[in-house]
Amino acid sequence: GSGTKLRGNTVENTRQQYQRRMENQLREWSSRMDEVKAMIGKASTQTKATLLRELGELEKLDASGQKHLDEVKALALTTWEKGKEELNDKWNMVGGSFDAIWARIHTKAA
What we know:
It is a single chain. By secondary structure, the protein is mainly alpha-helical. The chain is built from three helices and no strands. Helix 1 (11-42) packs parallel to helix 3 (77-109). It is elongated.
């Protein structure tokens, strides 16, 4: 993560900004998964099997990210302040895993 700290914002604005960042990331992941699906359509049989396996992993991470977003939306503001560090750590783990698989796919495709 970039470690950006938000200063001078209310708790609600901070949570909304975090939520928007997550929603943007999920849209980007969806776009990347669509790209993998397009690659699968053009791939050889052996590569297709690998890409399908990788896509399955990406889809699980995407579902985990969506669940995480739902948790953030459900948090009360008082809980948000206490739990945001842990939530951020979980989100970063999911994002890091997604990025690692994405990089693996593109290394193979190159």
